[in-house]
Specification:
With about 675 residues, this protein is of the alpha/beta class. The protein has a domain of about 290 residues: ABC transporter transmembrane region fold, CATH 1.20.1560. The protein has 21 helices and 13 strands. A 6-stranded mixed β-sheet has the order 7-8-9-4-10-11, with helices on both faces. Strands 1, 2, 3, 5 and 6 form a 5-stranded antiparallel β-sheet that branches. Strands 12-13 form a two-stranded antiparallel ribbon. Strand 8, helix 16 and strand 9 form a beta-alpha-beta unit. It is elongated. Bound molecules: adenosine-5'-triphosphate (ATP). Adenosine-5'-triphosphate (ATP) binds next to helix 10.
Length: about 675
């Protein structure tokens, strides 16, 4: 990749809030304080007892014991409070960073993540991960009690302390086994949870299909299918907990018994006082309380596994932008040089020396999976090519600042995400700040003004209160793209839900706009390709040919893309003229040789080029030839300079001549032997 921009490498985390460690430290201090107060109490109580037995005045020791008890209670309360704050802060931070990673990533790199999986990572996993730091602090503090108790025990009686010390490794082993086994189960549990969520969301997405097919019972079974595994994993985790508690439940009393026995012997020998024995028994219990760390350890392990899942979102590769600006008033000329895009080890796009003249409307055409979306994503830098570079007005896209890129390149999609707020706010959201008049103009250009006017509060209607059809939703997305478009507007299937008449109106409005710019339109309908100045025809990820629709239409393979030669094609099947029937009956379609009557709204007759040899006229309202239509100032075909591969005669090795410039006939040797035009000059075949 030659562009100066680069994707954020795996391992670099997304930017986002990072809570200070202060909250975690506060939890640690409070927990340690409470533990120390607990550790000091037996000493004070033992001393009080000894003083009482000796007939002394234990008032000071009693006060100290009470103060220690109160202190422990107070610190425990503070620990609980600060744990809540710490967990909430970390959960929010983990969630926001994961969200920033997700929203900032190269869009097609998040393709494998299902909504259910993302939802689980951002909710359950983020909450578990957020609980991790407080659990870590509490776990560290929980070690203070047994260690402190052991030290205090050594002060009271070293033999009792040695007895407890000998038993502690067994407790340590129990905890280690618990942490190891529970880690694997927790990871599997979180994975299955996300699988259930994914299936549930898929079902909600396909609710209409399920209702229509009457497959609700089957769907329910499918959603719940992972439940037995989830239940088994849950049971396993409880079993591991139970086993750890059971083992420590046996070990701890045994240890206390042994230590009390040693203490009793020391009392009998006069080496230990009664108060000392009381303190020793209590300290033995506290030291053996290391088993109580099991639940904290469980929370820590769960937090670690969950954090790994949220980090995967944080570290999704993101686009890194440069600092360059575009030359002012550039026409929006695009060039793809040596571009290669590889996905899952497979080359999904190769485009070299593909030049798109500034100001032209260019249709990107090809069968499903041919690479149209990948091409326009690369052209507007939604993703970077693995090799090669894309230049806009001579500047590599990767070198552009984010602001310059997004101000000059606008996208409209098949299913736009409009967000919340009102209709006007949805259209206004973007890199430019728009006046209400500009918003209204964009709505008009997108053919959305009519239905928006009929909404209860016009464009001030909240989207949530505006039930929109697929086409209306799409038109708002178009309006937003139009409103913010700079020198390049990319429409990826963005008019698929529009009827052909509206689509034509939108096209006309765009062409009449004062800032026409370059338009790259993924087209499934021949009517759209027919209105474009130039068509880039993709096949299996390669540029098969570039030319006008009229020229390309003579190649059977091109017609087949639209189902135009009897082959099942994609949406919006073509009339025999290749401009799309648009629901209007086409006469003379097929091989009759009879003229085809104008498709979609047309008054002008369209002649069947295939059978008559007569040039195909614009199926729009003008009767003018399609080539270089309407408002484009830019030359449609850059015959001199492009070097762009144009009309492949079917990989036959047959020379292709530039008929635009030479008037030499070009033969489509692939299937028909029918003369075919070629529009732009280049020496090499694609
Ligand atoms: N992120 C990705 N991971 C794996 N494969 C991908 C990815 N993006 C695209 N592809 C593959 O690249 C090929 C081209 O995809 P693309 O979406 O560009 O096709 P298309 O021509 O737009 O198809 P359609 O008309 O059906 O939308 C397809 O085979 C697709 O599966």
């Amino acid at each position: 990749m030659r562009s100066t921009g680069r994707a954020r490498a795996a391992g670099d985390a997304a930017d986002g809030p990072r809570p200070s460690r202060a909250a975690e430290l506060f939890v640690l201090l409070c927990s340690v304080g409470a533990a120390l107060a607990a550790v000091a109490q037996p000493l004070a109580l033992g001393a009080t007892l000894d003083l009482l037995l000796a007939g002394g005045a234990p008032a000071r020791w009693l006060l100290l014991s009470a103060a220690l008890l109160l202190g422990e209670l107070l610190l425990d309360s503070l620990t609980a409070l600060s744990t809540g704050r710490c967990t909430a802060g970390w959960t929010a931070a983990v969630r926001l960073r994961a969200l920033a990673g997700l929203l900032g990533c190269v869009p097609d790199r998040a393709r494998d993540l299902t909504p259910g999986d993302v939802g689980t990572r951002l909710t359950l996993n983020a909450a578990d991960a957020g609980a991790g730091p407080a659990a870590r602090a509490a776990l560290a503090a929980s070690l203070v009690t047994p260690v402190g108790a052991l030290v205090a025990l050594a002060l009271v009686d070293v033999w009792v302390a040695l007895c407890v010390l000998a038993g502690l490794p067994a407790l340590g082993l129990v905890l280690r086994a618990f942490a190891r086994d529970t880690g694997a189960s927790v990871a599997a549990y979180q994975r299955v949870q996300s699988e259930v969520a994914t299936r549930l969301l898929e079902t909600m997405d396909g609710a209409a299909t399920i209702a229509a097919a009457g497959t609700a019972a089957r769907e329910r079974a499918r959603v719940l299918a992972p439940l037995p595994e989830l239940a088994a994993l849950g049971r396993r985790m409880w079993a591991l907990h139970g086993r750890a508690l059971g083992r420590s439940g046996v070990l701890v009393p045994l240890l206390v018994l042994a230590a009390t026995g040693v203490g009793g012997l020391r009392l009998a020998s006069g080496a230990l006082s009664v108060g000392g024995l009381l303190a020793a028994a209590r300290y033995t219990q506290l030291a053996a309380g290391v088993g109580g760390a099991a639940s904290l350890l469980g929370a820590l392990v769960r937090g670690r596994q969950a954090r790994a899942r949220t980090l995967a979102l944080e570290r999704l590769p993101a686009l890194v932008h440069g600092t360059r600006e575009l030359p002012p008033d550039g026409p929006g000329a695009l060039e793809l040089r040596g571009v290669r895009v590889v996905r899952d080890g497979r080359e999904v796009l190769r485009a070299d020396a593909l030049r798109i003249p500034g100001g032209a409307t260019v249709a990107v055409v090809g069968r499903g999976g041919a690479g149209k979306s990948v091409l326009v994503a690369v052209a507007g830098r939604l993703t970077d090519p693995d090799e090669g570079e894309v230049l806009l007005d001579g500047v590599p896209l990767g070198a552009l600042s984010r602001e310059a890129l997004r101000a000059e390149v606008a996208f409209a999609f098949e299913r736009p995400v409009l967000g919340e707020g009102t209709v006007a706010e949805a259209v206004a959201a973007g890199p430019r700040s728009l006046s209400p008049g500009q918003v209204r103009a964009a709505l008009t250009a997108a053919g959305a003004d009519g239905f928006v006017r009929r909404l209860p509060h016009g464009d001030g209607t909240p989207l949530a209160a505006a039930p929109l059809s697929g086409g209306e939703h799409q038109r708002l997305g178009l309006a937003r793209a139009f409103a913010h478009a700079g020198r390049l507007l990319i429409m990826d299937d963005a008019t698929s839900s529009l009827d052909t008449a509206t689509e034509h109106e939108v096209d006309r409005a765009l062409r009449g706009s004062p800032r026409p710019g370059t338009r790259l339109v993924v087209a499934h309908r021949p009517s759209v390709a027919g209105r474009a100045d130039l068509v880039v025809w993709l096949e299996d990820g390669r540029v098969r040919a570039v030319g006008t629709h009229r020229e390309l239409w003579r190649v059977p393979g091109y017609r087949a893309v639209f189902g135009g030669d009897g082959t099942p094609g994609t949406r919006g099947g073509a009339g025999a003229d290749g401009h799309g029937s648009g629901g209007t009956p086409a006469f003379g379609a097929g091989n009759t040789g009879a003229p085809t009557l104008g498709s979609e709204n047309t008054r002008a007759p369209v002649l069947d080029a295939e059978n008559t040899g007569t040039p195909v006229l614009d199926a729009g309202n003008t009767g003018a030839p399609t080539l270089g239509s309407e408002n484009t100032r830019a030359p449609v075909l850059d015959a001199e300079n492009t070097g762009t591969p144009v009309l492949d005669a079917g990989n036959t090795g047959t020379p292709v001549h530039d008929t635009e410039n030479t008037r030499t006939p070009v033969h489509d040797t692939e299937n028909t032997g029918t003369p075919v035009s070629r529009s732009a000059a280049e020496g090499a075949r694609p």
